[in-house]
Amino acid sequence: MSAKTLPQRMCVGCRAMKNKRSLIRIVRTPEDDIKIDATGKMSGRGSYICPNRECLKAAVRSRGLEKSLKTKISAEIIEELEKNLNAGFENE
After folding, report:
1. pTM of the full predicted structure?
2. Can you give 12-29 as a three-state secondary structure string?
3. The domain 8-91 is classified under which CATH number: 3.50.50.60, 3.40.630.190, 3.60.110.10, 3.30.1230.10?
4. Could you count the other beta carbons within 10 Å of the beta carbon of residue 47?
5. Distance CA 92, CA 90 (A)
């Protein structure tokens, strides 16, 4: 009997392959809203980042987040994502 493999995803900030559960999913919904997907099941185009500020900054700087979501991301949305990520850090 073989061990079950864990799904791997690439962080768009640091470009490292990690377990899907250890990353945060950011979604572009069918209504073109950009949100953090806590459940991992929200419909829409998804992108994954590590749960730290440096990876989010790198993803924004390299436009990796825009490329993976295939949409332009405004500064207001980036600030909202940073604020939501910071709230997640306070809970850990």
Report:
1. 0.83
2. CCCCCEEEHHHCEEEEEC
3. 3.30.1230.10
4. 25
5. 6
Cα of first residue to Cα of last residue in the chain, in angstroms, is: 36
Of 49, 47, 44, nearest in space to 82 by CA: 49
Counting Cβ atoms within 10 Å, is residue 28 exposed (0-12), middle (13-18) or buried (19+)? buried
Q: What is the pLDDT along the chain (92 residues), one digit of tens a residue?
A: 678 888 999 999 999 999 999 999 999 999 999 988 888 889 999 999 998 889 999 999 999 999 999 999 888 888 888 887 776 654 44
